[in-house]
Protein 1
Amino acid sequence: MIKAITGTKDILPADISRWQYLEKLLRQTFQLFNYKEIRTPIFEETALFARSIGEETDIVSKEMYTFKDRSETSITLRPENTAGVVRSFIEQSLGAQQSLNKLYYIGPMFRQERPQAGRLRQFHQFGAEALGSTSPLLDAEMIQIAFHILKSLGLKNLIVKINSLGIPEVRENYKNVLRDYLKSKKEKLSEDSRKRFDTNILRIFDSKIEVDQQIMKDAPLLIDHLDEQSINDFTVVKNYLSKVGIPFEVDPALVRGLDYYTKTTFEIVSSSVGSQSALCGGGRYDLLVEELGGKPTPGVGFAAGMERILLACENEKSLNLINDSVDAYLIRIDPEIEMEVAKIASDLRRENLSCDYDYLNRSVKAQMREANKFNAKFVVFVGGDEYKLGELNVKNLSDGNQQLIKITDFEKLISLLKS
RNA sequence: GUGAGCGUAGCUCAGUUGGUUAGAGCACCAGGUUGUGGCCCUGGGGGUCGUGGGUUCAAUUCCCAUCGCUCACCCCA
């Protein structure tokens, strides 16, 4: 038997209503904040991701699905979508048509990691990017959109974490400060953290190992070494969040793994999904557009993991979706009038009434059970004595009432089924 | 890449201290009188006990390998 690739999942009809509910909520919410949908290809030239996300990051260095196509071009399945959106923004000159572009996307992403709760190799993200303004109100708006969506899904155990990484020069200076602090203590750090000392020193803050945390407890914080502008912007973000009633925590240890972030970063975590607790994350990236060859354009955005969000909903039982139903189920009483049943179904569908009937020649009883399973509002019996007299027997499945309707009186049938 | 746990019907799981035809619930199908559901009752189909090898008179049960799944580390959404 051929099985699905490790880390991929079929989303079956039984789960689809949750996905559709989420997608509908997303579109409504983004519409509310006036974001426009953009759909970019799921694969891009490999160089795009290397340049934007960062050559040294785990995502680029060991998690991408990269292959050569027949023309020997190195292609990568997108591991995230900011790079693709920014590429499109530059290539299509979106900045020339509009000074501020507020965009959102929904779609699959790919990373070759070991699967676990809330982590798949093909997974889905939605996200937003606002390109063209340095206003910290947009940073806060990103947080608000994400928070609004998660709250609308009924999620409870949420924590909004924010931090500021400052501008690059400041961050580089700070790294030196941190390096000085850690130099004497380096030998005491865990093996992983000693490695991070050279590759990505800020990440040592993230370590879950006791000794590391002990050492980092007294470490100088980036947030105390920020530039004037970053401090002011961060204050605006905090003030706005307070004004609109979104609780948050400043987390000086919140360091995002992608290289392109500047200034504000944030994350919303949930305690309802296992160890992969980040439902969404994002931040400002004022230098990315230029780095990818566009005109200098500030930007801010976020991405959220849809599987994780739905997992949190499931664990918190926060969604109570009603089952799908059909307006009518047609029941064939005599085997030989199959075609008449099909024709009636066709007529009903033309009137926008959802309906179905049996294709397996099953008994009336079996057809009734089927109607019940499909949550049919009405059942229409076709055949028997009443059919010979030119009538259809229509039964309301919720109260069991039946009534005869003349086949010629199609209007009456429609209005009954629509009632 | 590292570590741990688990693989018995479509699903959730029992079971065998190694021994005849491997079980339950749910789901599916058919019936419970001539054309009427949700509840209930009866019956039925469906399993190479993940795969390969070893030990043994005998393996679903013990051992080894392999594949897969799950969770955690790592990293991230």
Protein 2
Amino acid sequence: MPPAAGDREARREDVSQAVWQVLADKGFGGLTLRAVAAAMGVSTGLLMHYFPTKRALVGHALDLLERRTAARPRREPPAAGLAALRAALLDILPLGPADVARNRIWVSSWDLALADDDLGAGQAARYTRLRSALRAHLETARDLGELPQDADPERLAAGAVAFTHGLVVQALFDPGRFPEDAQVALLDGFLSSIAARP
Amino acid sequence: MPPAAGDREARREDVSQAVWQVLADKGFGGLTLRAVAAAMGVSTGLLMHYFPTKRALVGHALDLLERRTAARPRREPPAAGLAALRAALLDILPLGPADVARNRIWVSSWDLALADDDLGAGQAARYTRLRSALRAHLETARDLGELPQDADPERLAAGAVAFTHGLVVQALFDPGRFPEDAQVALLDGFLSSIAARP
DNA sequence: AGGTACGTAACGAGCGTTCGGTATGTAAGG
DNA sequence: CCTTACATACCGAACGCTCGTTACGTACCT
């Protein structure tokens, strides 16, 4: 049996965490193997021991970030429909330091994703998945009478994604102007604007 | 008198255009002086003749892109208020190839801007300027009765910027799913959702 | 013993930048 | 009008550095 067998995947996760740290700090322009190794206090040789190439190392870090994001603790939706949509969107916004770092990494990755067909397709697929998850909440909301009966859930889902991610970008660049309560107020304003009015 | 005096700034613009071309094609990760020189069919020596450093070259290209964007021909607002807001937002969306390239460059620049304090502050200032331009239209719209009387123009401006730029990002990654008419339909849906209802 | 887990050192490529050289033009001197 | 002087415009090669990657050595575990 190889020594410390089960640790191998754990080490790869450690490396990915260091990648996240460097990315959140310096962006993709400053992401070098030496910087990642320095962030871990190890040598670049270790990195190449666990990943065949830099691309694989970055790919694993982004994949793992997505899986961790999907599996992270979420807000309990207090009710179905619009309340659940609100909870899902609040989970996206950069309201805490961890969310800021996560969003920063995704926004930074767009430069690479727009130039690399594979990564670009992955990003597009992520958006499609997000829209269909939100669409479920919007369909429920419509059936509950929280939306106009003629509302188009797919279009509203795309709009909700647009609004939320556009807010993410503004908040990342100007956190002073978009503190937690300002982001929540903007989101609530958007949600009440799409809601059916009495 | 120096020979061909007035041409100097024109050459710097030529270089900046080549920078745009490389950025739209390969992103910041592929932006090298050799790539820019190759796109112009000149040597890297020429680039250093007109710019002291790569950072200055990139800075000039982004500055010039912003000025060109501000001075580009715009849609005639058919009326004041919401119609003017609609025209302004349509001018932002990637509805044609030129707008796609321009937006692609800005989105790509976010990786650099999030890591560089100067560029980040510039991006934040751009957002502030855009919001206040849109706020003017929203104030007019409110005064015209197109919005609820208690509408908050600054908050709505931030929301409109968020919606529009979030849509830009989705459209860049999935142009097949967001053709021109889909983007316009989404925008019109957003605008009618914030409008006062009869 | 032998395979795993590293560290250390080095390689070749590509980067931003520097340097010397050449061509071209204007400006001044005779 | 021709010559000299000098700045500008640009090229091609090269420098020093950093990058991703490779090769090799060593310690440890089984």
Protein 3
Amino acid sequence: MTRARSILWFRRDLRLDDLPALAVAHAHGDVTPLFVVDPAFSASGAPRRAFMAAALQALDDRMGGALVYRHGDPAAVVPAFAAEVGADVVVVSRDFGPYGRRRDAAVAERLAADGRRLQGVGSPYAVDPGTVVKNDGTPYAVFTPFSKAWLAVGQPRWAERRATPAVGDVNWVGAPDIACDGPPAVPAVDSTLPPASEASARDRWAEFLSEGLDQYDDRRNQPALDGTSRLSPALRWGILHPLQLIDDLGPVRAHEVFRSELAWRDFYADVLFRRPETAWENLQPKMDAMVVDTDARAKERFAAWTEGRTGYPIVDAGMRQLLATGWMHNRVRMIVASFLVKDLHLPWQWGARHFMRHLVDGDLASNNHGWQWAAGTGTDAAPYFRVFNPTSQSERFDPDGEYLRRWVPELRDVGGVAVHAPDGLLRPADYPPPIVDHAAERDEALRRYKSLGAAAR
DNA sequence: TTTTGAGTTGTTCGA
DNA sequence: GTCGAACAACTCAAA
């Protein structure tokens, strides 16, 4: 008689340590690990595809090569696979995103039709979306009170939490005995990010914890420095779970700032869980009347923005870093986002889509609600008059121009402060002049916001 | 129910 | 060079 068997279907929790779904699958008996390669993902940029493929490879290595890849629509592939291998249960980490919920509902329905079930265990968040509520049971819409309640709800749970024990005796039943499609292709990229394995992510965390975290609140805003954890891709793909980080934090100001960033991640996941349509629609409907440019000139400007040839060095440096590595420093993300929305007057969705395509850590909730914040359409929106000045941001956060020269080599020989805004004779011949005048576009943005207010009254 | 204080990340201007 | 005020009005959250 064969032993009972379950399928562990990996999606965005690409780890084995501290994975509740694995413990549950193991309790069912033999475990068949599955990853479904979704054709929709092939639209992503090379660094993003490379990181996911590398994470899967590292995961598979830990399972002795047992990971089964199948290509296609999960709603068809997963139930068929469960029937093929004779598994009654498919265990997953729960996905709270709009696409993931639709997908999982479809999969669960088809599994149920065959007398099987989808079992969701755990999530990639410190506190699951939908959990943090006000006294009247409704969700928070402002970050600061959310984060206080998040901490109040979370801390007792985290204190009594036991990391899921290492599962050393799992009997993996998978490839090569089970037929397998190929893994996703691994494009070559030159990445400065930590490699995509659990061991290297843990090493990076240990290094950051001992060397960088205590100065996090000071150094995290300087893009030339290694002042951030750079663990966002590991968190995005579930190579690490946020509680593995929170467990190590102490009652220190810099640690609290770092934890607050993890609270932002949970906050935006919660907002998107409550309002799934806000992935691509304004959270604040009154902002729908905002005038944005979408004509041919707008498309040309958008192309210049994506390719890093706006003539604003800090913007171009960030956009080039994104294309080259799949990552961009957070301070620079805010600067380029403000530039797209308030200097170029383009729809925030254009920028969000580009980021999602290229960012290795691109997460729909954090990314798109971050963009909504920048555009003033979202939760906790920035006041309309808060318009980033790309030159003064550059002077303030990259005072020596080190980041600029690293990513915009045309500026290598521009000395002193001119590197932040090389104009006239100081501009190298191969570096473009500014595509717009910031002062003029700032006024234009303020004018548009004001006329919106007048129209609303 | 009403009131009150507050709200991630900024810039500019004038004294 | 430094500093405070202005830039609006609204919504949220809790007392």
Protein 4
Amino acid sequence: MTHSSTTESTCIVWFRRDLRVNDNPALVAAIERGGPVLPVFLYAPEEEGDWAPGGAARWWLHHALTSLSRALDELGLPLVIRRGPSLDALRELVAETGAGAVFWNRRYEPAIVARDTTIKQTLKEDGLDAWSGNAALIWEPHQVRNQQGRPFRVFTPFWKHLRTQAPSPPVVLPELAAKAPDEAPRSLALDALGLLPERDWDAGFPQRWTPTLDGAGEALEAFLDGPVARYAERRDCPGASGTSRLSPFLAHGQLGPRQVWAAAHSTGAADGKGGYTFLKELAWREFAHHLLVHFPQTPTEPLNDAYRHFPWEPDEAALAAWQRGRTGYPIVDAGMRELWRTGWMHNRVRMVVASLLVKHLLQPWQEGARWFWDTLVDADLANNTLGWQWSAGCGADAAPYFRIFNPMLQGEKFDPDGAYVRRWVPELADLPDRHIHTPWAAPDAVLRKAGVRLGETYPRPVIEHAAGRRRALAALQENKERQRQPGD
DNA sequence: TTTTGAGTTGTTCGA
DNA sequence: GTCGAACAACTCAAA
């Protein structure tokens, strides 16, 4: 590559899940190449296999693109939006502009890896310079191996290994002025992609989120300025603002993990217990991508083969009750309603609702993963897969299947004053603290006074806890016995 | 090479 | 009330 800015051809920068201008290796490399830079976004959900963006993620994507477009405008680089198929769109843009290069940042979902491999090879055969960089991770999955040269399957050794390796620092935008092509290719209007929902179920989203690049920076700063110090304890309390809430920004690449890692260190947050715990969570995100790359079947298949024929009992009514937040367990229903209303759920509650679906209700974990996929603004295939397989006990370093969360106990431990339940399950708001997590056990007079009519204003539990627990353990036993019979 | 011990997030039971 | 054990099976690194 030369830097003779007068002769270098145009370089297309293909934005995907790296919707930022800072710490963006593909953008930086394109600018440094010296020729005009043409940023493009190609909408091609049909190329994502079973994992096209869900409704909540599309809402976020719409706003992230608006924000990216503004940020690129400030660099003098108007964003071109087109629809897929991606390869066709890229070739058309090459033909229209005479571009000589296409740069992008890697994604790690199996369907996308396969597509990108083909695209890179084809573009090279077309005589173009095709290059991909790393915007999404601090450590590349294929560079992390255990002593036997195999991928890690247990987090703690993975984390220990990472701590001996230098993290890659953020990439910095060059001072060189970026140049746009003389003639801008036509672009679709963002609205033409139809990303925003037709029904206005997203009304609660803007109250919770500022899905822009400024919003990303502010969220990071606000977290490192306060909550991080007590993160180790308060991250478990869904009624408090103890978590970072950075996940949707990371999922869309409005923040890169390198930037977060570096900011945690430069502010000194990383030196404290809370900061250390937070960085470990970032490492879990790396671990999730590590697993997705090395075990690409896991979005749909259990990592642990012993669970391949687990005796789930699919039941649409049970699944629907869970999805709608009508299980009769207040902490679970609060979580599911928070998810529906805001596109996000507190991590502690994600574990509780997952446990109830997979264990008490014996629904396949894939159903839960699918619902989360459609409703989370932070939907990320690696994290979602790890989380659900962990909850179901069939994944890497998973909670053992016999570890069954008790939803009352979890509520009493982590939402002791019921603030979280009252916020999301308002029909229970007037119950006293000691009954907020167990309305079915409250005396009639207490229920009447709080205006709660069980089975009418609020459901009774879909399944009694002890019975659900026994049934789950029996299913585990049955699965174990099946394992012993060869061939099944 | 083989063995050993530890491993994100829990609950229940019996002493 | 608290406390330890039991509840699988397997990976990984250190001894």
